[in-house]
Design a protein that fits this description.
By secondary structure, the protein is α+β, with helices and mostly antiparallel strands. It is built from 14 helices and 26 strands. The strands form six sheets. Strands 12, 15, 18, 20, 21, 24 and 26 form a seven-stranded antiparallel sheet that branches. Strands 3-2-1-4-5 form a five-stranded parallel sheet, sandwiched between helices. A four-stranded antiparallel sheet has the order 6-9-7-8, sandwiched between helices. About 4% of the residues have low confidence.
Length: 460
């Protein structure tokens, strides 16, 4: 079996590692804009290309006799790479361009959810002119401001957080309208969580819930990033989510998947990522993504016990209901090591080493510094997995770019133990001019989330 993976980030390294764990021993081919050394070590061949060049990627797939493909990031989905692969006779995990609008066009997404009577939508408005947008901000008084298009997870700003008051919300709206339409939404108060599902067009197989941490600095301070880390609990539910709230979020996602054929004429086949906020009135929908999250993919795919190649086949053939998707009942904590100065002024071209018991595959030609590329490091009661993200290799040395560098995932029987494993790896295994958040997954941070939800629910 030959599988093509499109994309070269930490999310795609997690996908690649999951594919290579398949007992069917598939051959992996990859198409990416720059060579991720971790993914390259797992691949038969790497095609360096523009990840949005649908024609070139489809031609490569035909030339290599690819049996199935997996499109990782949002940009190639938006560019129609999945459409081109299907047209070339390559069944693909990743929605068509029209279905990917659930992520790539926030205005379309809100209207779609409203039109089909799906729960969880906020009060919202879509604007191309400033004056009516400003009037709507005055009407709601407490808002989130979102560019309608793709922003890499960094464009949304919320009052009481990045926006201190109404004046700041209006100023940011004016800024967004210089290059995009803007979506103004009521602000929900609660705790965010991510629910990701494998989708075959009709059926959904849900991954464990995850909580991501967008802010750059500890204490949830600083600018938004693509995500500094995330954690899962041992089991499907985060500690602050109750079973009925989880079921409601699942129902919202199922209703969304069922509406796609009515709206677009096509089924959604791929990964649907629901970003929810849990309020005192249950889960509300912040947004959808049409692919795995980054870092959330590293959390859930590290737990996947089922055959990834078989999962992919079930997605493209519409037979997910005929298999049981198994995830380990361990907790995970993923923390990103990022370049010094990230995200505003990241230090590029700084050497990174993965040392001190992480082992070395030798697959990228390094002399002990390339680390455990997508392999699991076993311990007496826990595991550690290291994934490469936005880095490059030259003469066997790994260097930073201007984005997130390495994701470190600890797996254990509890969040607290998993956090210690990931933090220990960052302190002792990863070296370089890097920084990371120490608070992700710590007992104090997790308890803060639990207390916040209890307070909102009126519980002690």
């Amino acid at each position: 079996m030959k599988i093509l993976l499109v994309g070269g980030g930490g999310r795609e390294h997690a996908v690649a590692a999951a594919i290579k764990r398949s007992p069917q021993h598939p051959l992996l081919y990859t198409a990416m804009s720059k060579k991720n050394p971790g993914i390259a070590a797992l691949s038969e061949e790497v095609f360096i290309c523009d990840e949005k060049d649908a024609g070139a990627i489809a031609s490569f797939a035909k030339e290599k006799g690819i049996d199935m493909a997996f499109v990782g990031p949002e940009a190639p989905l938006s560019a129609g790479v999945s459409d081109a692969l299907w047209a070339a006779g390559v069944p693909t995990v990743g929605p068509t361009k029209n279905c990917a609008k659930i992520e790539t066009d926030k205005a379309w997404a809100r209207k779609f959810i409203e039109k089909h009577g799906i729960e969880g939508n906020p009060k919202y408005g879509v604007f191309t002119d400033y004056e009516p947008a400003a009037a709507f901000i005055d009407e709601l008084s407490d808002v989130a401001v979102k560019p309608a298009g793709l922003t890499g997870g960094k464009g949304v700003k919320v009052m009481g957080d990045q926006l201190p008051d109404i004046a700041a919300a209006k100023e940011y709206t004016k800024e967004v309208l210089k290059g995009d339409s803007v979506v103004i939404e009521e602000r929900f108060i609660g705790e965010e969580f991510t629910l990701q599902a494998l989708v075959d067009g009709k059926h959904l197989a849900f991954c464990p819930t995850v909580q991501d941490h967008k802010r750059a600095y500890e204490g949830d301070l600083g600018p938004n990033t693509g995500g500094m880390g995330a954690y899962t609990n041992a089991g499907a539910l985060l500690p602050f989510i109750q079973p009925d709230e989880y079921e409601k979020a699942k129902q919202i996602m199922q209703a969304t998947v069922s509406a796609f054929p009515r709206e677009t004429g096509a089924e959604f086949k791929g990964i649907l990522y629901g970003q929810f906020i849990l309020t005192k009135n249950g889960p509300k929908l912040i947004e959808y993504n049409a692919r795995f999250g980054d870092p959330e993919a590293m959390n859930v795919l590290s737990l996947l016990e089922s055959d990834m190649a078989a999962v992919m086949k079930a997605i493209v053939t519409g037979t997910l209901d005929q298999m049981t998707i198994e995830f380990s009942k361990k907790a995970t904590v993923c923390k990103y090591a990022v370049p010094a100065g990230y995200p505003d002024n990241p230090k590029k071209d700084a050497e990174i080493q993965v040392i001190g018991g992480a082992g070395n595959t030798g697959s990228t030609g390094g002399a002990g510094n390339t680390g455990s590329i997508g392999s699991v490091l076993k311990g007496p009661s826990a595991d550690l997995i290291i994934y490469y993200s936005s880095v490059y290799e030259k003469d066997g040395i790994i260097y930073t770019t201007n984005s997130r560098s390495i994701g470190v995932v600890g797996l254990a029987s509890s969040i607290e133990e998993a956090e210690k494993i990931s933090q220990d790896a960052l302190d002792k295994v990863i070296t370089g001019d890097l920084f990371f958040r120490r608070d992700i997954g710590t007992p104090a941070l997790v308890q803060k989330r639990i207390d916040h939800m209890n307070e909102l629910r009126g519980q002690k």
